[in-house]
What does this fold into?
Amino acid sequence: MEQKEIELLKLLEKNGRMDNDTISKMLDVSSAEVDEMIKKLEKEHAILGYSTLVDWSNVYEYEGVAALIDVKVTPVRGVGFDKIASRIYRFPEVKAVYLMSGAYDLSVSVEGKTMMEVSRFVSDKLSTLDTVLSTTTHFILKKYKHDGIIFDEGDDDDKRIMVTP
It folds into this structure.
């Protein structure tokens, strides 16, 4: 992969809405070359999609729960962890699955409407898979930074009430 393509990927990763004219100026190439690079990178599956990062805590009346689940599994001979990871990421509640080093094998990011919905997913769907040995669920209480974006930046005021004896 060429250096300009890597620079293009870094720019799009930070801002997927950046227009080709701006990118062409930043990379010192023509707008047509940018368009060709993007088409090539999409065809090669280096660019898999474009998304928007939303701070759901600022969306009025949105109630949702996110959790990270550590999963210990028995790998399958010949395919390792890929087969079980594939079964897990096909559930609609699952947003991401990562193979990890350490005490657990997989880290699974899950979203649901309520804590009960997430816990039912773990008990009814995830834990019942034949190669899953154990799970540990961590509910996300607040996001401070995600994909390099800081949430609530500039809100440094301490809103706790001082308590004195």
